Amino acid sequence: MSLELPVMLTIVLFLALGIFSQWL
């Protein structure tokens, strides 16, 4: 297994969290 998938999921999660916080 490569570590690319967990890293990409973490980056997407933080990006979504940042965008969601701007909507509030």
From TrEMBL:
Residues spanning the membrane: 6-23
UniProt entry keywords in alphabetical sequence: Membrane, Transmembrane, Transmembrane helix
Protein name per UniProt: Uncharacterized protein
Native source species: human gut metagenome
